Amino acid sequence: MVKVAVVEGDGIGHEVIPVARDILAAVRPDFEFFDVEVGYGLWERTGCACGEETMAELRSADAILFGAITTPPDPDYRSVVLQIRHDLDLYANVRPIQGGDVDIVIVRENTEGLYSGIEWTEPDRACTARVVTRRGSERVARYACTLAKSRRHLTVGNKANVLKSDCLFVEVCMAEAARANVPCTARYIDALCLDVLMHPDRYDVIVTTNIFGDILSDAAAYLVGGLGMLPSANIGERHALFEPVHGSAPDIAGQNIANPIAAIRSAAMLLRHVGDPAAAAAVEEAVRRVVDAGIRTPDLGGTAGTREFGAAVLREVGRGKA
């Protein structure tokens, strides 16, 4: 029995995550789902967005389906996503950029860098420590090399010409690639961002540090239709969390216009993680067939609502099982 914790989150998470959950339940009726409340809405009511009891619930799951969380500009509010990534030690953030002729996987170190959580304020400045360790670099490099071995090659995104911490990251990644016999090159992140947009066919698996991976993957979403299309996986040794890359989008929440594709594709990544690649492929193929049939949400130029798009994918999944 696979236990899946379902966190709707905030904003449009309450709309897109139920769609993804319904599709998971359709292809794997044997899964056990349980709801966990996390996020800004909970914080507003209780003063705690994600307490230890909540973390215990998340640790009990075999996988977590996670919606976007609103993070307000409030110094008393700790980022829930960063807390969960650190507490569950989800060290690799995997973001496929796939659609048309584009097939890139960005692997982002997920617990260090500028999202280390080491911050302080002084009278005239605010400081954030950028932390890059050998252990953190080694394990994310190994994960990226595992992906690249079944594909073509690895690119290490970095700014080692300016940042000494990136010198260590590049050194470790190149050594791990050589050990795994994976072809590997290093590219400065600013030039890499531009070249990925201009020549995506040149790239396969890209590994980089935390904030660089965050920015690069969001920019690369342009290649496949926007953030509403991008799924992601947060992978650790013992836990795994799957979430759409987009935010909670409170400006469109409750209007039934949010694109659920990123959430559905995140569910497909969950299926592949728990050892069911056939079901994952069936879900991904159902999404492709629905989009090809012209059923699209407004961000893709269509008129379908969130629920209507989800229902169409469910019908395609059902046909595939028939």
Global geometry: globular
- What is the gyration radius calculated from CA atoms? 19 Å
Based on the coordinates given, report the CATH architecture of the largest domain: 3-Layer(aba) Sandwich
Strand count, sense and barrel status of the largest sheet are: 10 strands, mixed
Looking at this structure, what is the CATH superfamily of the largest domain?
A: Isopropylmalate Dehydrogenase
What is the number of domains?
2
Helix content estimate: 40-55%
Widest beta sheet: strand line-up: 2-1-3-12-11-4-5-10-8-9
Number of helices: 11
- What's the end-to-end separation, in Å? 24 Å
Overall mean pLDDT stands at 95
What is the CATH topology of the largest domain?
Answer: Isopropylmalate Dehydrogenase
Content of β-strand: 15-25%
Element-level helix/strand string:
EHEHHEHEEEEHEHEHEHEEHHH
Q: Tally the beta strands.
A: 12
- SS content category: alpha/beta
Spans where pLDDT lies below 50 across 5 or more residues: none
Task: Write a concise keyword list for the protein shown above.
322 residues; alpha/beta; Isopropylmalate Dehydrogenase; ten-stranded mixed beta sheet; two-stranded antiparallel sheet; 11 helices; 19% strand; IsoCit/isopropylmalate_DH_CS; 3-isopropylmalate dehydrogenase activity; 3-isopropylmalate dehydrogenase; isocitrate dehydrogenase (NAD+) activity
Task: Itemize the secondary structure elements and their pairings.
Layout: E1 3-7, H1 13-27, E2 32-35, H2 40-46, H3 52-59, E3 63-66, H4 80-87, E4 92-99, E5 102-109, E6 119-122, E7 125-128, H5 134-149, E8 154-158, H6 164-180, E9 184-188, H7 189-198, E10 205-208, H8 210-220, E11 231-235, E12 240-244, H9 261-273, H10 277-292, H11 306-321
Helix pairs in contact: 1-9, 1-11, 5-6, 7-8, 9-10, 10-11
